[in-house]
Protein 1
Amino acid sequence: MRLKPLLTTRRKGIVATLTLALGPGIWWATHELRSDTQVANIPQRICHNRISSEKAAPLLPTKGSKYTEDADTFGGWSSLGTCEVKADDSAIYVAYQDALGHKRNYHPKGIPVSLGKAHGSLTTEGAINLYVSCINTPRTVTKWLLIGANATVVDREVEAGKKLNRSTRGLRALTEFTAQAVRDLTQDWFKCPGADQLPDGPVTIHWDKPAVP
């Protein structure tokens, strides 16, 4: 299947690698003039109402910002969905893809991560990717969904040349948001069998396991 180009070129680095895993971090737009008294009204559900915003809030500024959302391909019948939510110059990017059978040949690069039986990696670019079993549903054609997320707050740490570790700014919040996105998408939208067994809480980063180069 030919991947449909995104609406803006600033995300082309991510989409180019999405067939294997979410790749480079978000490219954010230039800073806009803002008023520190302006409040970003983040809705209770984001990305076409598919994901709760509760865990998104810590990754976005609340003052001096205006909330916007670009999710035209998210939550439809396509095997690829992308969503960017943004408050001023900070953003969260989340995407899903029907894995198209490539899981058997996919070796996640980065630090291993998991959420119950879902597993994947924290990439060197700061994205969290998880493979989730999702078989025999009306909205999938293969056995697996690849769901991933990244955020500018983590991306900026990478851009500054800092190595990802337990103290990386925004990483804890990203593990919580990614887990929420995975649960909401697999339980409520795709209705993957067994998705109700995904645990509460954040994605676990297995710092003690060797990273895959």
Note: The CA atoms of residues 55 and 180 lie 7 Å apart.
Protein 2
Amino acid sequence: MPAKQITLEEPYIACQNQLGEGCLWDPKTGLLHWVDIKRSQIHTVEPKTGYRSIDDYSDVDEMITSLVLRSDKPGFIGTHTTHLAEFPEATKPTTANPSPIKRTSTPLVGDKSFTIPEKYTKDKEDGTDRFNDGACDALGRFWVGTMGVQPGNRKGQFYRYDVDGKVTTVKEDVGCSNGIGWSPDTKIMYYIDSPRTTILAYDFDLQSGTISNERIFATSDAFDGGVFDGLCMDAEGAVWAARWGSCRVVRYLPDGTLDTEIITPKALNVTCCIFGGDDMQDLYITTASCGETDKSLIPQYPQGGDLFRVRIDGVKGVERFKFAA
């Protein structure tokens, strides 16, 4: 049976991010957050009003690559280019046409500090470039990966950052670490290393925070070009994955069957997705206006960098886990 296809002709918000990524839904506040990596900004929208805000962290001269919500206080834990930091609560949205507001993050220090080891980043031509995507597991540990300066050369890593600041290198030989998610029973972890053009699955031991039995969950064979990027999960245990370079988000059932394709014909590089809304049936999708370089793709794909939203009736998303501190 062919996959169901839904085409999105218009964006929800025409924000034209350079590299929109890392979307988060906060059910407590009813706010959606996402980052524009290249511009070092955190965007926030309140869907009930349409009001937005933009927090600008560009003064630190570091990109923002990922965010997770915190369980014990407002704000976020996230990654700049090479280090972890805490970010204050997002500026309250009060207008539909916001101007960026300058904000400041705080690097984690002491036993809680985490910077990509210099042995990986010292080779500026063929080493580790920067942090990329991250997510928390059900015990509030932060899983975050890096990408190589040349992703095809696989000089990145995948880390587990515990609440007490302990860092474990889970994987090396990573090209570009991207989407991370868990099955509803937390017994399977899904992981995307984009240059491998697959979604990987692992057996996951929640108590120890360890993975084993790597296998391929889904491949890119059904698509003409592109790679997997960010992902999110739904309550049925299906995986929703963005596809960089092929204008779509795809849904895979737990048995690996391709079930649904959400197509964005005017936005080539689709980066991440998350469920939100009062009933968790609205799927939000971030995109990029840039390609492999910073050159804009807007002339060919005029909705690149915009935020999309689509109603997925009958399918409920699940909340992302929060950092346990």
Note: The two ends are 45 Å apart (CA to CA).
Protein 3
Amino acid sequence: MTVTDQQTQKQQEADALKVKGNEQLKLNNFEKAIDFYTKAIEIQPNAIYYSNRAQANIKLENYGLAINDANESIKLNKDYLKAYYRRAVAYSAILEYKKSLNDANLVLARAPKDKGCLSLKKELVKIMNQLKFEKAIEMEDDKSRFNVDAVMESYSDLDVSYKGPELKVTKIPAKSKEEQDGLDVEITRDYIDSMIKLFKDGHKIPKAHVMAILYKANQLFVNESSMVEIGLSRSKTSDKEYQDEEVEKITVCAHLSLQW
């Protein structure tokens, strides 16, 4: 048997094991699938075998192993897009969103209609925009979060290139030395609708708006009563003397505050 014949035979044996692995993968027998792919790799390393084993590892939530397998697959064939996609899925699962998006973009650059990758990218963009928003509302200290002057100062630094919805904020001077200045934040239905559309389009509102909205929310919570009475209705229909409902009032703590 020639060297070429030996290589052909090894390839055939490895392919047969890959087929068995694929069958187990379809049956959701992921560990058995991994065994077959591993045997195939031992005989003849191949980008497809590594990528398929990565998929089985993803199903078992072995994301680190899946990333390793995808890396090996890419080393053997840098043009094998499934390996990049599966690595993107694994990265996303361990919250490595930027790395996941990089791989997703690479796949879509070559296969722009790939449904799985399009769906993954959409979700990644949504998550990353949310993280950006959360980061935008982080302030240096508690005192500055709802400080009137800090909010107004942020408005003076508002980026002139911002073309989103306008939020009207007016400073209300204190009536006496004992009082503090306040803010009138006009959050209209039109503003909310425009803000939602802005988020859906992948944009964000400026920090000045975030600070003003948080100021308004905090004032609403602060003005709420800390104690409230709740009426509880109960009836005892099995006894004639309890034909009418009896109302019992209890007092509960209903104080709300923003948590940071």
Note: Residues 3-26 form the longest helix (24 residues).
